[in-house]
Design a protein that fits this description.
- By secondary structure, the chain is of the alpha/beta class.
- The chain has 6 helices and 8 strands; from the N terminus they run αααβαββαβββαββ.
- 31% of the residues are buried.
């Protein structure tokens, strides 16, 4: 069982890239879902001083330079466009850079960053992948790790395989965990401090 280096999972996210933001925005297949308070929590996530995916959250990060990394070239293409706009759209790269790469073997030097932020990635990882990712995140950004993920639902298992259906009707199977702020803090603290930034109905966020 794997996620980060699973070929079928890569194919799913590559195919999903163009419609990925519909989940955040409540459009497309998600337009009819009853999600009370969803938009308010997304707005709170955007406002946090904190996987880049399509850079839906990453583009709001503060700092002179933001570097996003994702396994999917299609996701990275969308993210690069957004990060370029973040820098004024002149193409000089000051706004940010998106790269294709492996989150379990980050292509960066030790201590290269002040912070690693990951959104809706950690909750997909199986135990061995979680350990590898956390070691890499702490290597490249020993100062701070921020993890954003999906909060537990009122009904439903906290750990399960989900069937995901894309707009073209294709079906994909993805491993998913749902984590409260306390869950994340316990896993990320590692004997140190972990601050719960958000413990909402839909999203959890922790800084460690």
């Amino acid at each position: 069982m794997a996620f980060a280096r699973d070929a079928d999972t890569h194919a799913y996210y590559e195919a999903r890239a163009a419609e990925y933001d519909e989940w955040y925005e409540g459009t497309g297949r998600f337009a009819t879902r009853d999600r009370p308070g969803w938009a308010d929590e997304v707005e709170r996530l955007v406002g946090l001083d904190v996987a880049c995916g399509t850079a839906f959250l990453t583009r709001h990060l503060r700092g002179d330079l933001v570097v996003g990394l994702d396994r999917s070239p299609a996701m990275v293409a969308i993210a690069q466009h957004r990060l370029r706009e973040r820098g004024g759209g002149d193409g000089d790269g000051d706004g940010g850079l998106a790269l294709t790469g492996d989150a379990l073997a980050l292509p960066f030097a030790d201590g290269a960053f002040d912070r690693v932020l990951t959104g809706h990635f950690y909750g997909h990882l199986v135990p061995a992948e979680r350990a590898a990712f956390l070691a890499e995140a702490r290597r490249v950004a020993p100062g701070e790790l921020v993890v954003i993920d999906s909060a537990p639902r009122e009904h439903g298992e906290r750990e399960r395989w989900e069937e995901r259906i894309l707009n073209d009707g294709s079906r994909h199977r993805v491993f998913k965990r749902f984590l409260s702020g306390a869950d994340l803090a316990a896993e990320l603290g590692g004997g140190g401090e972990a601050e719960i930034l958000m413990d909402g109905r839909w999203f959890s966020a922790v800084r460690a």
